[in-house]
Amino acid sequence: MLMLPLYQNVTRFFESLGQLTQLIGETLYYVMRGDVEFRNTLKQMVALGVESIPIVFIISGFTGMVFSLQVSQEFQRFGVTSLIGQLLGLAIVRELGPVLTGVVVAGRAGSAIAAELGTMKVTEQVDALKALATSPIQYLVAPRFLACVIMVPVLTVFANLIGLLGGYIVAVYQVGVIPQVFFESAISFLEIYDLFASLLKASIFGVIIVLAGCHKGLNTNKGAQGVGDATISSVVSGMMGIFIANYILSALLF
C-alpha cells in the first residue's frame, strides 16, 4: 500500500516531463518555421513586457538603492569607496538585474499565462481550436514564447540601468561618494561580456517562465479550482527554475 502513492508520484512526474518535452518541441518547430502570428505576438509583448515596466523599475531601483546604501557605508568605513561602483555594477548587471526581472515576470506574466490558458482549457476553448484544425501550440504558446524571449532581456536592460541609477543616487547624494569615482569604478570593470551574459540569462529565464505558465495552463483540470492551482504552480515552478538556472549559468559564464 505504501508503494502505491510513490508509484503514482513517479508516474505523474514522467508524464509531466513528457508533456513538457512535447510542448518544447512543438513550440520550437513553429518558431523556427516562422509560423507565428505577428499581431498576436505583438499583443503578448505589450501584455507580458511593456505592462511589466513600472514594477520592474520600482523593484530594481530600490534594490540598487538598498544595495548601494549597505555597501557604501561599509566601504567608506574602510576607505575603499573607489570599489563601490565596481561592486554595484557587477552585482546589478551579472545577477540582480536579470534575476529580479525574471522573478517579476514570473510572478506577473507567468501567472497571467497560466490563468488565461487554464481558463481556456476548462471552458473547452482549447478543444474548440483543435476541432477547427488549429494547433493550440501554434496559436497560443508560440506567440507567448517569442514575447517572453524578446521582452525579458529588454526589461533586464531597463532593470540594469535603473538599478545602477538608484545605487548612484544613494552613493553620491546620501553617502557622499564622489560622482567621478563612482563612474570610473563602474565603467572600468564592466565589460561587454557582462552585458551579454546578463541578456543571455534573461532570455533563458524568459523560456523557463513561458514554458512553466503554458505547461500548467494547458494541463489544467478540475474547473475553477484547477485554474487557481495551475496559476500558483506556474509561479512556483517558474521561480524555482529561474534560481536553479541562475546558478548553473553563473557557474558556466563566470
Structure at a glance:
The protein has helices at residues 3-33, 38-48, 53-77, 84-122, 125-131, 136-175, 179-189, 192-218, 223-253.
Throw out a few tags for this protein.
elongated; single chain; 9 helices; 254 residues
Tell me about this structure:
The protein contains nine helices and no strands. The relative contact order is 0.17. 87% of the residues lie in helices and 0% in strands. Helix 6 packs across helix 8 (192-218). It has 254 residues and is mostly helical. It is elongated and about 70 Å long.
In the predicted model, the low-confidence regions spanning at least 5 consecutive residues are none
Percent of sequence in beta strands: under 5%
Spell out the helices and strands N to C: HHHHHHHHH
Largest sheet: none
Q: What is the helix tally? A: 9
Helical proportion, percent range: over 70%
User: Total strand count, please?
Assistant: 0
CA radius of gyration: 21 Å
Q: Span between N and C termini? A: 48 Å
Principal-axis shape equals elongated
Tell me the structural class: mainly alpha
How would you state the average pLDDT, rounded? 86
